[in-house]
Amino acid sequence: MTTVLITGANKGLGLESARRLAALGWTVWLGAREADRGKTAAAEITAEQPGADVRVLALDVTRDDSVASALETVRASGTGVDVLVNNAGIAGTRKAPAETVPADFLGVFGVNLLGPVRMTHTFLPLLRESAAPRLVMVSSGMGSFGITNDPDRLESTLHGLVYPSSKAALNMVATMYAKSLPDIQVTVVDPGYTATDLNGFSGFQTVTEGSDAIVEACTATTRLAPFISRSGPIPW
User: Per its UniProt record, what InterPro entries does this chain match (predicted)?
Assistant: First the structure.
């Protein structure tokens, strides 16, 4: 039995990834900052998939005590963790670069960058107990220097300091984990422009399409490129 822990899994890409992995017979720890919303999301999955092993995990990735408590809950359950998906993220301000101030970065970096670092650091000992551990970082094409400078890509037309830089920083953190943790397969994914509340449901992809790269990073039987979208490898 394979076990996955997904942060920010009570809605959007996290919920769809949880649904799809549960359908494969995996044990899914559904991380949610608000336990009631997590329970509602888990009930949605189990209503569609009777017998699915979906477990709600109260989890605020910005708090050391919450992440430590989550670790103890998972450890006590005996399921272990084979795959950690750092999915929780927020968009933050949409101010123009010239109007952005330092305070605008704090909350977004707290979730998008420090959240994955906190989760990875805390769960690494448990992850290493797996026979085939994987670490999946949910990033964005907005964090890619190659994509945001490609005039043929939508991302090159969008201007902003906070969200793109948080994802670019996450990409660098992931590459450093990959180099220093050769026993763990580390994959960074760009879901693509997906209709979720992160962007006011303006994306042109469905959540199923958006979760394709996440699910592939979790399940691929061959070694993947370090940064992928649903269409294949993409540039840093």
Answer: NAD(P)-bd_dom_sf (IPR036291), Sc_DH/Rdtase_CS (IPR020904), SDR_fam (IPR002347)
